[in-house]
Each structure stands twice: as structure tokens, then as C-alpha cells.
């Protein structure tokens, strides 16, 4: 009878061998549970599929936040009188929040011996709190009052017509803080909430990607990552649909009489219930955080075959006998690993920065992320401005056209890698081809749009004036010069002549009855020579029929832009040492934030502001933009996007060229190798670029790993396959 059998029969647990104790400890470590509670009934949850489900829930929540926040920007712009660049700052500070700690989090928490899902759960919980802070100004400040003149007159229900005079009283009230709400403080609170949301996002993607790659078998990991990436599209769709729904409800529906608000969603002063979508987001973040607190350090499904993948993760020509900086700093029994690990961080970062192909892929990543950040932030505004759509309509089209294409492209990218078992060179060619197709589509969009809003005094002339040029804006004409109109608040009206006027006052209307303005001196009635009438609301852009082709091309662009993400991500993870994988993803995260997500909304916003032709002026202060030069808006917005797409495609060309050159050059002799498990050194990179295929090798991503088959492919020496990790 063996000792193990004896102890089992007698119950003498103290006699268990150290090997048995270690096995039992490993089994317990792979069980699902929280703190010291690990019920055996929950053990099946410690699996890759359940982790995939939990990640899909969390990514859906974050994408839902992106959709609801982007859809709420127009309401925030009107509610708190913000400029486009200030709106861009909201998105930028969200990205800055997760940039602050990302390197330290992935360095200390990204190793296999740490419980990475716990950090992800804490991050999701932090995002729930940050989102709650972001929408809290709705409840800390008074209700929104769109009828400015009701504060200075008793005629709150009377539209502003020719001869109304209330600007002077209103400015006096604003100076005494009776009229103007403290929108600046509310804006600061929103910014603080978004910073906290960004901090919470820090551990999510870097730790989740490395956790999947370490615990899921090779054949399915890329498909897992593709499914997770697709949730960004699914969640954003839901977010924009919800945003479109809440935008049709008045912002203060729960505390004011809706019947007293004489506005409709198409009116310029309409503010939807922007905060309601964020409240739903906060609840989703909280619920999605809970499953992560139960996952173990390693999943129970990790098999010896998957461990073999770990041994062969780096390619043959990458590996040497040189020690890893992380492994040589500690003496046996040392307890100061956290302090010492911090000292090794610079050398680990330098190792990544000396990998040219990693750097070129990072350039492509932050270029693509800059495009995504700019489009997600301002695409609804682009649709509203360029095609005359209302905020609910713009959010709806955002949800049903480009966002589903993103989800489809992410899944398709993972599927193609799994199906075709592409090597590194083939995967980069796939990413490059998709990038070029998206670039061509973006160039085409430069010529698709509407050329004017039909607003009198801005881009069309008043009936009694010659056509104005593009550099002059004058809302005053002989027909309304005696009306005393101001341009503080647009209440656009549509004349029977088919021209939109900034307000009934600017149309010269003197009477209002049963919802119609009469005796409008600037409006020519086409049936006679008398003064015409006008209806509330701007005239539709009936002469512009470019929306359908624009949306069709946008769908193609979004599809191919998202399809390129998974191939280049898998190449990147295969070009670094396994122990550096989390840090490499974290550094990539830094690059995409510093050069992509953070500045992109700012310079997109500044570019949009530069095309404004008519600014709101409130008692000497500039507010939001009332009218844009539509051709300039289109050329500027799409021109910035084209420039970023060109940079992305160029970086993929460089990465592909390095892989191609390495394939033709073969492996470096071991005697000439300068690698320390870091991929490729800059000296090797320079040697290849100087001597070409006959002078050496740029052996980034070198070796024999056939990732699609789970290990080294002995029949394919020197060719890396980058199908599923």
C-alpha cells in the first residue's frame, strides 16, 4: 500500500507528502470563488468560456458608455454652452485617466503569479463610481431653463418676434447670477468623473488579453479576442440606440411640467435626458465587475499542451541563455520583489523600444485609435451638421451603420486568422490591405456631403441682397434692421420661400398666431409680393441627397478598419517575450493614448471650431457654434482622418517590409546574436536596413512557431504563423 493510499484510508492528512500537498494547493488555486470561499459547485466557472462571457459583459458596458456619452455630447453642448474643443476634452481626460497608472499596473499585476481578474474587477467597480460622478451634476444644479426671456418678462410663451427687447435685462440678471447657472462647475464634475472612469479602465484590456493568451488553447485564443473586440461594436450600438431614445425626452422630465416646454427635439435649444444613459452605464459597470472577483490566478482548463505553447512562445532565434532582468534581481527567499521589480522596469521598457516591428505596429495602433476617437466623439455631430439630422436621428444612424460594421469586422478578423493559419507576413499583408481599402473610402468621403444649410445671412442671401461670400456673416438686412434682433439664441424658422432664418425676429416677423409667424418682411411669398409667413424650425435640406451614399461608404470603412485590428495585435504579441506580453500590451496602451485617444478629440474639436461661421454671443462671452461652413467642415474633418489613415498604412508597410526581408534573409548565426529574449535589437535592425537580404536579418518575429498548431512547426523553420494565440 502506498503512503497516499494509506493516508486516504486512515484520514491522516498530516502524513501527506509535499508533492500531494502541492497538487492539492494547485487544484484549490484553480477553483472559482472569493476570499476563502471556493465552493466545489462553482469550479466549472473557472474556465476560459466563462471568462470570455465576463469580459464580453464588461466590454459591452464600456462600449455602451462610449455610445451613450457620444450621443449625449450635443445635449451637453447646449445644456452647459460648451465648444467642440471642450467636448473633446471630456473624451481626452477619460483616456488620460487610464494612462496614469497603466505601466505600473501591467508591470506588477500582469505576471502569471498575480490574480489578474481581481484587478479587472476592481477596475470595473471604479468605472461604475466614475460614471455616477459624471452624471451627478444633473441632480446638484437647478433645472435647465431654455426660455431665457421668461426670466425678464411675463411673456414666457411668446416667441421672439420683431421689436422684442429683453437682451439688456437678461444681461443684468446674468451678471447678478440670477439668470446664468454655474455650468462651469458642472463641466468640471463631468471631467472628474471621466478621469475616474479612465483610471478604472487601466487594467482591463492588457491584463485580460494576457490572461486569455496564458490560459486558453492556441487554436481559439484569437477567436476569443475577436469576440471580445466585437463587443465594442455591439455595446456601442446599444449605447447609441439608448442615447437616441433618451435624447427625445426632456432633460428634466422628472421635475418640470413637460407641457410648458414649447420645444421639440429638432429645435436648437432642445436638451435631451443625457444623464439617463450614463445612469444605466454605471449600473452595467457594477454588475459586470462581480464575476471577476471569483476567477483564480490560473484557469483549471490549462493543459500540458497549452503549457507547451508557453515554452515555445518566443521563437528559436529569439532565445538565448542570457538571464531575464526580472529573474536575476532577487536572491532566494527575498521578500522585496515589488521594490526590486520597479528597478527592472526601465530595462524591460528599453527591450520593447528596441524592437522595430513592435514600434511600427504601435504607430499603426495609435493612428487607428486616433481615427476611432475622433469619429466616435464627433460623428453624430457631423451627421447633424452636414446633413441636417436631429440628435436622435444622428444617434440612430450611428448605431445601425458604422458600429455594426466594427463588430462584424472584429469577429471576421479573428476568424480569418483561425481559418487561414496565416504566418506573420501574411497577417501583416491582411492588415495592410484592409487599411488601404479603408483609406480609399475615406478619400472618397471628402466629396460626399451637403454644401450649405440654407440659413439666411450665413450661406444664402436675404431676398433683397446679393449672394454673400463665404467670409462674411451678417444676419442683419434692410428687412430686419429695425427689429433689434440678437444672435444669442437661435429659434430657427422656415419661411414659405424655402429659406431658414435664424429666428422669427431675423425673418422680420411681427405676428404670431396658432403656431405660425405672419407679416414677415424678409420672407417673400412666392404667390404674391406681400410679406410671407414662416413656421418654427429650420427648413429641411431637401436639395441634398448624399446621406445614403455617405452611410454606405462609411459602413465599408468601418468594416475593414476593424478587420485589421486582430491580425496586427496577434503579430505584436508574437514579437515580444512571453513574460513581456502584458507590459508590451500596456506600453501599446500608452502609445495609443498619448498619441491617439487623448489628443485626437482635442485636435478634431479645434479643427471643427475653425470652420464655425457664427458663434453664440452671450453678453460679450462666446458660447457654442450656431452655423458652420459645411464644405470646410467636411474637408477639415475628413482631411484629418485621411492623414491619420495614411500614417497607419505607412506603418503597416514598414512592418510588412521588415517581415518580408527577414523571410528572405534567414536566421542570424547564433554567434552574431545580440538578443536577450527581446525579439530584435536595433543594431540588427540597422544591419538589415543597410545590407539587405544578403547582409543579415531583421529577425523580428523570427523562428519556427506555427501558432495555429500550438507549437513549433519543424517543417517550417524560419516562418512564423500568427494565427490564433
TrEMBL record:
Comp. bias regions, Low complexity: 691-701
Pfam families from the UniProt entry: Kazal_2 (PF07648), OATP (PF03137)
Highest taxon in the source lineage: Eukaryota
UniProt subcellular location: Cell membrane
Ranges of compositional bias, category Polar residues: 1-16
GO biological process: one example: sodium-independent organic anion transport
Transmembrane segments: 50-73, 93-110, 117-136, 185-212, 224-251, 271-293, 357-376, 396-417, 429-448, 546-563, 583-604, 637-659
Family matches, as Gene3D superfamilies: MFS general substrate transporter like domains
Any single GO CC term annotated in Swiss-Prot or TrEMBL for this entry: basolateral plasma membrane
Keyword Manganese: no
Region (Disordered): 1-23, 691-725
Alphabetized UniProt keyword annotations: Cell membrane, Disulfide bond, Ion transport, Membrane, Transmembrane, Transmembrane helix, Transport
Keyword Transcription: no
Classification via InterPro entries: Kazal_dom, Kazal_dom_sf, MFS_dom, MFS_trans_sf, OATP
GO molecular function: sodium-independent organic anion transmembrane transporter activity
Every Major facilitator superfamily (MFS) profile domain range: 51-663
Boundaries of every Kazal-like domain copy: 473-524
Membrane topology: Multi-pass membrane protein
Family named by the database record: Belongs to the organo anion transporter (TC 2.A.60) family.
Protein name (Swiss-Prot/TrEMBL): Solute carrier organic anion transporter family member
Protein species of origin: Patiria miniata (Bat star)
Amino acid at each position: 500500500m502506498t503512503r497516499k493510499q494509506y493516508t486516504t484510508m486512515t484520514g491522516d492528512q498530516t502524513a501527506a507528502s509535499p508533492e500531494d500537498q502541492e497538487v492539492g494547493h494547485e487544484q484549490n488555486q484553480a477553483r472559482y470563488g472569493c476570499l476563502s470561499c471556493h465552493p466545489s459547485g462553482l469550479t466549472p466557472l473557472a474556465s476560459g468560456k466563462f471568462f470570455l462571457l465576463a469580459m464580453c459583459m464588461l466590454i459591452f458596458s464600456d462600449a455602451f458608455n462610449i455610445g451613450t456619452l457620444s450621443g449625449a455630447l450635443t445635449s451637453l453642448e447646449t445644456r452647459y454652452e460648451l465648444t467642440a474643443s471642450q467636448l473633446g476634452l471630456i473624451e481626452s481626460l477619460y483616456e488620460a485617466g487610464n494612462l496614469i497608472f497603466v505601466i505600473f499596473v501591467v508591470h506588477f499585476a500582469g505576471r502569471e503569479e498575480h490574480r489578474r481578474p481581481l484587478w479587472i474587477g476592481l477596475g470595473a467597480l471604479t468605472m461604475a463610481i466614475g460614471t455616477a460622478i459624471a452624471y451627478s451634476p444633473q441632480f446638484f444644479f437647478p433645472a435647465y431653463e431654455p426660455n431665457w426671456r421668461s426670466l425678464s418678462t411675463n411673456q414666457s410663451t411668446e416667441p421672439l418676434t420683431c421689436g422684442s427687447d429683453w437682451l439688456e435685462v437678461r444681461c443684468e440678471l446674468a451678471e447678478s447670477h440670477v439668470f446664468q447657472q454655474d455650468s462651469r462647475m458642472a463641466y468640471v464634475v463631468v471631467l472628474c468623473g471621466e478621469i475616474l472612469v479612465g483610471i478604472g479602465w487601466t487594467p482591463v484590456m492588457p491584463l485580460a488579453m494576457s490572461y486569455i493568451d496564458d490560459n486558453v488553447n492556441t487554436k481559439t485564443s484569437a477567436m476569443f479576442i475577436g469576440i471580445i473586440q466585437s463587443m465594442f461594436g455591439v455595446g456601442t450600438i446599444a449605447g447609441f440606440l439608448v442615447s437616441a431614445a433618451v435624447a427625445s425626452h426632456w432633460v428634466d422630465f422628472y421635475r418640470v411640467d413637460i407641457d410648458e416646454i414649447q420645444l421639440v427635439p429638432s429645435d436648437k435649444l432642445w436638451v435631451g435626458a443625457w444623464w439617463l444613459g450614463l445612469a444605466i452605464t454605471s449600473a452595467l459597470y457594477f454588475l459586470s465587475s462581480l464575476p471577476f472577483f471569483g476567477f483564480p490566478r490560473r484557469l483549471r482548463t490549462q493543459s500540458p499542451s497549452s503549457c507547451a505553447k508557453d515554452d515555445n512562445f518566443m521563437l528559436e532565434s529569439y532565445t538565448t541563455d542570457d538571464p531575464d532582468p526580472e529573474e536575476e534581481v532577487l536572491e532566494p527567499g527575498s521578500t522585496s520583489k515589488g521594490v526590486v521589480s520597479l528597478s527592472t522596469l526601465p530595462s524591460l521598457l528599453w527591450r520593447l523600444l528596441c524592437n522595430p516591428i513592435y514600434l511600427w505596429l504601435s504607430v499603426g495602433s495609435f493612428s487607428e485609435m486616433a481615427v476611432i476617437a475622433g469619429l466616435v466623439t464627433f460623428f453624430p455631430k457631423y451627421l447633424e451638421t452636414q446633413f441636417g439630422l436631429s440628435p436622435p436621428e444622428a444617434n440612430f444612424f450611428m448605431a445601425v451603420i458604422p458600429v455594426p460594421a466594427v463588430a462584424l469586422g472584429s469577429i471576421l478578423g479573428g476568424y480569418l486568422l483561425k481559418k487561414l493559419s496565416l504566418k506573420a507576413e501574411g497577417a501583416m499583408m491582411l492588415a495592410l490591405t484592409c487599411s488601404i481599402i479603408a483609406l480609399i473610402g475615406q478619400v472618397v468621403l471628402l466629396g460626399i456631403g451637403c454644401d450649405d444649410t440654407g440659413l439666411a445671412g450665413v450661406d444664402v442671401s436675404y431676398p433683397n441682397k446679393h449672394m454673400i461670400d463665404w467670409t462674411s456673416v451678417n444676419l442683419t438686412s434692410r428687412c430686419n434692421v429695425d427689429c433689434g434682433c440678437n444672435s444669442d439664441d437661435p429659434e430657427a424658422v422656415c419661411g414659405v420661400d424655402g429659406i431658414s432664418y435664424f429666428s422669427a425676429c431675423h425673418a422680420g416677423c411681427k405676428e404670431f398666431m396658432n403656431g405660425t409667424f405672419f407679416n414677415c418682411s424678409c420672407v417673400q411669398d412666392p404667390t404674391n409680393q406681400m410679406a410671407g409667413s414662416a413656421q418654427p424650425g429650420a427648413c429641411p435640406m431637401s436639395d441634398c441627397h448624399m446621406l445614403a451614399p455617405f452611410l454606405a461608404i462609411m459602413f465599408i470603412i468601418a468594416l475593414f478598419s476593424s478587420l485589421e485590428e486582430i491580425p496586427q495585435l496577434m503579430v505584436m504579441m508574437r514579437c515580444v517575450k512571453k513574460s513581456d506580453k502584458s507590459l508590451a500590451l500596456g506600453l501599446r496602451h500608452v502609445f495609443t493614448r498619448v498619441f491617439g485617444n487623448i489628443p485626437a478629440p482635442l485636435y478634431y474639436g479645434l479643427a471643427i471650431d475653425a470652420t464655425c461661421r457664427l458663434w453664440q454671443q452671450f453678453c460679450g462671452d462666446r458660447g457654442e457654434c450656431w452655423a458652420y461652413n459645411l464644405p470646410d467642415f467636411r474637408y477639415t474633418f475628413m482631411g484629418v482622418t485621411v492623414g491619420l489613415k495614411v500614417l497607419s498604412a505607412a506603418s503597416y508597410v514598414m512592418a510588412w517590409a521588415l517581415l518580408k526581408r527577414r523571410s528572405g534573409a534567414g536566421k542570424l548565426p547564433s554567434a552574431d546574436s545580440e538578443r536577450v529574449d527581446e525579439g530584435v535589437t536595433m543594431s540588427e535592425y540597422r544591419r538589415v536596413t543597410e545590407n539587405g537580404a544578403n547582409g543579415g536579418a531583421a529577425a523580428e518575429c523570427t523562428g519556427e512557431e506555427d501558432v495555429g498548431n500550438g507549437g513549433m512547426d519543424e517543417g517550417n523553420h524560419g516562418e512564423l504563423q500568427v494565427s490564433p494565440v
